[in-house]
Design goal:
The chain is an alpha/beta fold and about 220 residues long. About 40% of the residues lie in helices and about 10% in strands. The strands form 3 sheets. It has a 3-stranded parallel sheet with strand order 2-4-5, with helices on both faces. A two-stranded antiparallel ribbon has the order 1-3. Pfam families: SGNH.
Length: about 220
């Protein structure tokens, strides 16, 4: 691991990707929470001149596609750019709205002369990993496996298409956890610890384990 002189500050709210101007149409009275959070982050960055790099991460696949992983229960995630569109919200409309919001977020960050690192979606697994690992160790059932790289790329291809033009700016970079978690590695456990906390998010330990490699990759080409 290379020392990149990074001091971490994290701003997050569950189910709120860093998309400017987006409203969660599926969240009732909480529909504006995400937009308020993201607007507050931009306001904070205006005052935080010591910050030079911003890392954006979310479950991009569900934001862009609206639909959850095949084995995952729950309603679609619906995003719209204004209150008046809530009644017509539909997951098939997410892609256009979200693509525009991603571009706007990065535009705002670059206007503030901030470097941007985009971390792709964590590969989704069709099992609750900690429980599956317990069963594998104590009952002899099969170990959970991360999806292969092809499946993950298909799930994220429209998100990738949304950010590809943005990567022409040398100060906007992207890295993918799939490079470290999918075939041929299939990493779900390391040193007896679960890398995932459920079926689509890294555990705290998993994030700490993976982050140095991701940052090394992100800063490889200054």
């Amino acid at each position: 691991m290379i020392d990149h002189q990074i001091l971490d500050l994290v701003a997050m709210t569950a189910g709120c990707p860093p998309l400017l101007g987006m409203i969660r149409a599926d969240r009732g009275e909480g529909r504006s929470v995400c937009n308020q959070q993201n607007s507050a982050v931009i306001a904070f960055l205006d005052e935080a001149s010591h910050i030079k790099t911003v890392v954006l991460h979310a479950r991009w696949a569900i934001a862009v596609e609206g639909l959850r992983a095949p084995s995952e229960p729950g309603r679609p995630a619906l995003f719209v750019p204004e209150i008046g569109l809530i009644e017509t919200a539909h997951f098939e409309k997410n892609h256009a709205y979200v693509a525009q919001a991603i571009q706007e977020a990065i535009k705002q960050l670059r206007q503030r002369d901030l470097e941007v690192i985009i971390i792709d979606t964590v590969p989704e697994i069709d099992r609750f990993v900690p429980q599956a690992l317990f069963s594998a160790h104590y009952t002899g059932s099969a170990m959970p496996r991360a999806p292969d790289l092809k499946t993950t790329k298909i799930r994220n291809q429209r998100f990738r298409a949304s950010i590809e033009p943005l990567l022409e700016d040398r100060n906007v970079r992207s890295v993918s956890p799939a490079d470290y978690l999918c075939a041929p590695i299939y990493l779900v456990e390391k040193d007896g610890k679960a890398v995932y906390r459920d079926d689509d998010r890294l555990s705290i330990w998993g994030a700490r384990f993976l982050a140095p490699d991701l940052m090394d990759q992100a800063f490889m080409f200054p």
